[in-house]
Amino acid sequence: VNGSIEIPVVVNVLYNSASENISLAQIQSQIDILNQDFNGNNPDFNQVPSLFSGVKADIGISFVLDNVIRKSTRKSSWGTRDAMKSSKRGGIDATSPDTKLNIWVCTIGGGILGYAQFPGGSSSTDGVVIDSRYFGNTGTATAPFDKGRTATHEIGHWMNLRHIWGDTTCGTDYVADTPTHNTANYGCPSYPHYSTCSGTPVEMTMNYMDYTDDACMYMFTNGQKSRMMAIFAAGGPRETFAQ
Ligand code: ARG
Ligand code: ZN
Ligand code: CA
């Protein structure tokens, strides 16, 4: 891993209604957003408060659309138990999951925007799932999750990042340069939003690994970058992705 990683992306589209069969333009909009968000090229990167400007990171990972696979289905929602990843269960099998990031785009249901598999799991289910209404920033993309940040967040998990609040009150994300958050933040918190955890730090509500609206999350940190890079290094769980 000498500073740059390029990830081929296979987008698997499962549609029951015509609107779920999203356009290539909508798919490409998501790829473009990933390339911005993971390279410090997002237009809102300059909104990071000066308190955090020393830790905001250009991850240096790029994404290339490798293939789009489409399948019509009688299922109107897929849940979160990986059925969409299996042709035997009506879905689409992953393509080369050890060298390509598979994204399944379908209706999940239950108010879920997306979900991811962490590194180290079964390769047949590896990848991320994003609801078609929260994918990309055009076509059927729906506010306030219409800026493609659901995929940025889920791919953060796929690269081993935890939620910034550590999934428990004042929990840890195992990243030293992110502040300790009370819990998940939603909507678009006004700045500064103080934690009541030890030391009452200002929370980094604009981090992609919080739960704020798409327009209100626009940074990763250097510490998060280290966690992501470690999985692509020799001996790491995604070493097969590094050239
Ligand atoms: N797994 C989270 C959920 O489904 C994704 C949150 C993404 N947040 C966002 N602003 N797009 O709720
Ligand atoms: Zn998450
Ligand atoms: Ca932290």
Q: Overview of this structure, please?
A:
Belongs to the peptidase M43B family. It comes from Flavobacterium sediminis. By secondary structure, the protein is α/β, with parallel strands linked by helices. The chain has three helices and five strands. Strands 2-1-3-5-4 form a five-stranded mixed sheet, with helices on one face. Strand 1, helix 1 (24-37) and strand 2 (61-72) form a beta-alpha-beta unit. It is globular. The model has no long low-confidence stretch (mean pLDDT 97). Bound molecules: arginine, zinc ion and calcium ion.
Kindly report how far apart the N and C termini lie: 7 Å
Mean pLDDT: 97
Provide the structure class: alpha/beta
Query: What share of the residues lie within helices?
Result: 10-25%
Characterize the overall form. Answer: globular
The low-pLDDT segments are: none
How many strand elements?
5
List the total number of helices: 3
The major β-sheet equals: 5 strands, mixed
Small-molecule binders here are: arginine, zinc ion, calcium ion
Written as H for each helix and E for each strand, in order along the chain, the element string is EHEEEEHH
Strand content: 5-15%
Our Rg estimate from Cα atoms comes to: 17 Å
Strand order of the largest sheet: 2-1-3-5-4
How are the SSEs ordered, and which strands pair?
Layout: E1 5-15, H1 24-37, E2 61-72, E3 101-106, E4 114-116, E5 128-131, H2 149-158, H3 222-232
Parallel strand pairs: 1-2, 1-3, 3-5
Antiparallel strand pairs: 4-5
Summarize the structure.
The protein is α/β, with parallel strands linked by helices. The protein is 14% helix and 15% strand. Strands 2-1-3-5-4 form a 5-stranded mixed beta sheet, with helices on one face.
